[in-house]
Amino acid sequence: MRDYIDLEQGVAAKVALVQGQEAILLPEGAGDVTESYRSGADLVLVLDSGAAITVEGYFSAAGEPATIVAQGGSPDIYFQLEVDDDGALLKKRKISREQLEEILGDADPEAAVADLSLDEPVQTIVSTSNAEGGAAVAGGGISGAMVVLGGLLGVAALAGGGGSSGSTPATPALQSILANPSSATLAQFAEAGITGVDTSNIQDVIAILSAFPSTGRTGFTASDLQNLVEFTNTYVGSGDVTSAVVTGSDIAIEVDTDGDGTADEGVTVTVNPETNVTVAEFDANLDGVPESRETYTLDSNGNVTAIETSTLDANGNVTSTAFDAD
Q1: Measured in whole angstroms, how far is the alpha carbon of residue 263 from the centre of its chain?
Q2: Under a CB-based contact definition with an 8 Å cutoff, are residues 188 and 176 in contact?
Q3: Half-sphere exposure in the Cβ direction for 5 (13 Å, CA)
């Protein structure tokens, strides 16, 4: 049995990244991260207990920083952490075992857990291969998902104003799903060529799809529906959609992340087709005040040309902003 560090009040632990490492899995109890910050090239994670975990060299690696996954209160609960360039915690999202395995690639999740030491930094056993196509890859995964959802809002708006924008006739199965999402079956999704839908997420996919007005859904192609499934798997993960509402060019989604039947976090995505700008606001506490905002500027082909990430205070005022332009 692995000896985990006792994350008690005041405990400070360090983890050193292996050069080129693309993911790190922190042990049981580390999922109680409440805040984080940058200290030079290191990332410091502060737990609810007051303990601190320092990920050494997190910001010094070339390319995208490593994906950080922390175990919750039991070995079967995992959270993916997202931080900005200043180390501030943007999002803590519950993920499934399957998503964890996609992030870690060929590494065994049990073997990949970081051995935290009170005395000296230690390396971790994590695959350095890129988990390409994983549903919960940090950074681009969430960002891409929000752009996808913005695109679906745009498609629905166009369809609502003048009929379907799809050039390929919909199959009977796709027509049935779009016409009556609440009655959609796994067999229909498979027949329509849609992948990534199973018993664990079909109700979440249906909930988000049903939020779009029927006149808007008629503009969805199989590719659009596949994108919606990818969004669901990326943002919702192993959580459950408790509410999804489309109002004009906005969609608001609330998610139960811990399985207690009550929504814990939410996102509101707004698209402006005229300016090719999509805005996502994240409400991690579901208190009506978003903690962060991401603004995506797209070109005429739908490619992201700039991302503006803002941190907001309790009054909704911007406290810091970071820009990423291609």
Answers
A1: 16
A2: yes
A3: 25
pLDDT in tens, 284-297: 888 888 888 888 88
Q: Which residue has the higher pLDDT, 245 or 52?
A: 245
* Cα gap 241→259, rounded to integer Å: 10
Q: Cβ(201)–Cβ(208) under 8 Å?
A: no
pLDDT per residue over 136-157, tens digit each? 222 334 566 777 777 888 777 6
Helix-strand-coil split of the chain, %, nearest 5 = 25, 30, 45
* 1: its two tokens: 């049995």
Label the pairing between strands 23-26 and 67-71: parallel
Backbone conformation region of residue 255, classed left if phi is above 0, alpha if psi is from -120 to 50, else beta:
beta
Q: Determine contact, residues 173/191, Cβ cutoff 8 Å.
A: yes
Residue whose C-alpha is closest to residue 304's, from 294, 312, 290, 293:
294
Burial class of residue 69 in the structure, from the number of CB atoms within 10 Å of its CB (0-12 exposed, 13-18 middle, 19+ buried):
buried
Lowest mean pLDDT among 69-73, 233-237, 296-300, 304-308: 69-73
Using CA atoms of 221, 274, 283, 238 in order, give the dihedral in degrees to the nearest 10: 10
How far is the C-alpha of 294 from the C-alpha of 292, rounded, in Å? 7
Cα separation, 296 vs 303, in Å, equals 10
- Estimate to the nearest angstrom the gap between the alpha carbon of 285 and the chain centroid: 16
Q: What is the DSSP letter of 291?
A: S
| CA-CA-CA-CA torsion sign (302, 270, 251, 165) | negative
**Mean pLDDT calculated for residue range 84-111:** 74
pLDDT number for residue 132: 29
Report the alpha-carbon distance of residue 325 to residue 323 in Å, rounded: 6
Residue 269 CB neighbours (<10 A) = 26
pTM: 0.55
Q: What pLDDT, on the 0 to 100 scale, is given for residue 203?
A: 94
Beta strands in 87-224 (DSSP E): 89-95
